[in-house]
Amino acid sequence: MKRFERLEQIRGMDPYQDASEIYRLSSAHEFPWDFARALELALYRTYAVPSIGRLLARTAELTDRTQKRYDDTVLLLDAVVEHGFGSEQACTAIRRINQMHRSYDIGNDDMRYVLCTFVVMPKRWIDTYGWRRFSRHETVASAVHYRTLGRHMGIKDIPESFEEFETCLDAYEEANFDWDEDARRVSDATLALMASWYPRPLAPLLRTSTLALLDDRLLRAFRYQAPNAATRALVRRAVRGRGRVVRLLPPRREPHFARQNREVRGYPDGYELNRLGTRPTPGVRGCPVRHLGGSAVE
Fold first, then answer.
1. Alpha-helical segments (H) within 3-132
2. Domain region containing 216
3. Is residue 16 in some structural domain?
4. How many CB atoms lie within 10 A of CB 76?
């Protein structure tokens, strides 16, 4: 197979009818590493919305059980990508996702915003750092794939196109990104998790490198000091350089799904989809985190 042969295959498909298959080819064959990084940062940036970051802090899922929360999220979303919406695995994964979300008071606007990050951030990352840019077929297919997921999750007023997803994301961040102490704790725990995947002496360097990849709006919301211009340029140039190297390599022959990522570490002996994720506290009905005015409080 030649380097751009799979792209030609994608361009010969219908981005609406074959949306999930195109998304699978892009994420598991063309850009598995890029999708992993982009979706990590997509979820990470949602913490800067105080209603999201505060709730995650109160549940302690991303402060006390960070690796497990990361693994479960990756594995549940990956099951839908690998097996398709009509599969038993996807039905089980979506059922678990919905059971978890219904245990908490999460507004539709926040749910829709998180969905927007899944659509928008991979394209932005790949267009900047990937070995080639995202094609129009892949862009449309990604939006259609996540519209389908959003409908299965009961999310209302889902954007119709990639451009609408992008507008929704930018407007929501402009209106809602803000400082929150609990959200910062979730952010710090996530950065520590990412650093833990590598030898300990590299932790400070990895934290600085991650911050160098974040945009100013996100850095301000968490009140992180931005790395200096030279550091940001060096880190971003290095990631772009990786993309240029990958472009010279032979195309991937076998798919690499997110469940195969080295960062997924919590289930060395395997896992069952229906046992992943959080469970409502026995005897507690409704959201186990108390809310006031739409925001979680102690």
1. 5-11, 19-25, 32-45, 50-59, 66-83, 88-101, 108-129
2. 12-263
3. yes
4. 21
